[in-house]
Amino acid sequence: MLKACLVAWLLLFAGDFLSTFLYHVPEHVFGKLHLTTHHAFKKNFRHYAILTVNLQVLLDGILGACPYLFMAALLYQVSIVGAIAGLLLGQFHVWWRHVNALGWQTPGWVTFACQMLFITTPEQHWLHHKNITVGFGDIFTVFDVPAQGWLRTLRLSRVFLRSFKYEKAFAFKL
Ligand SMILES: [Zn+2]
Ligand SMILES: [Zn+2]
User: Fold this and answer.
1) Distance between CA 163 and CA 32 in Å, rounded?
2) Which ligand is nearest to the CA of 61?
3) Rounded Cα gap, residues 127 and 150, in angstroms
4) Would you say 153 and 162 are in contact if contact means Cβ atoms under 8 Å apart?
């Protein structure tokens, strides 16, 4: 039982870490898919939390979920129950963190418990929907501050890359 719980937690923690740093933040800097599908205004719960038949929404959801599936593939040998529980909890959290779109307000004691466990509440996640530079860490709030640093670093590198490209093009013309 303890092993299954640890595997489920590790799957979610490592999955969130990989998803945040390898997909979510880089996608905000270099991509368009996540921005257009997940940060479009006036979209409903179904759009954000359930993989709709819209190909772009589907692709964004699948790419974000890949790290969790990767962790499940690694961890199922340790505990298959833990790996399945981790994936189910991860999916449940996707639905739960978007219930704000349905007008939900998290009870105070749940918010307190989540703060103690560093778990992202729907209100915390909604901050990210309103402002793309804050509220990172889809499941764990501990990734928020380092992800903001990662976002700034990648944005700087994008500026550097663009100026480098521009210089190269300019030198070529000369
Ligand atoms: Zn969201
Ligand atoms: Zn985002």
Assistant:
1) 21
2) 1
3) 18
4) no
* Tokens encoding 59: 């692709």
Q: What distance in angstroms lies between residue 24's CA and the mean position of ligand 2's atoms?
A: 6
Cα distance between residue 147 and residue 149, in whole Å: 5
- Per-residue pLDDT of 112-155, as tens digits, reads 999 999 999 999 999 999 899 999 999 999 999 999 999 999 99
10/75 Cα distance (integer angstroms)? 9
* pTM (two decimals): 0.88
Identify the residue whose tokens are 């990989």.
Answer: 18
> Tokens standing for 122?
């729907």
Dist. CA 94 → ligand 1 center (Å): 8
End-to-end C-alpha distance for the chain, whole angstroms:
69
16 alpha carbon, distance to own chain's centre: 6
Four-point Cα dihedral 139, 144, 147, 149, nearest 10: 180
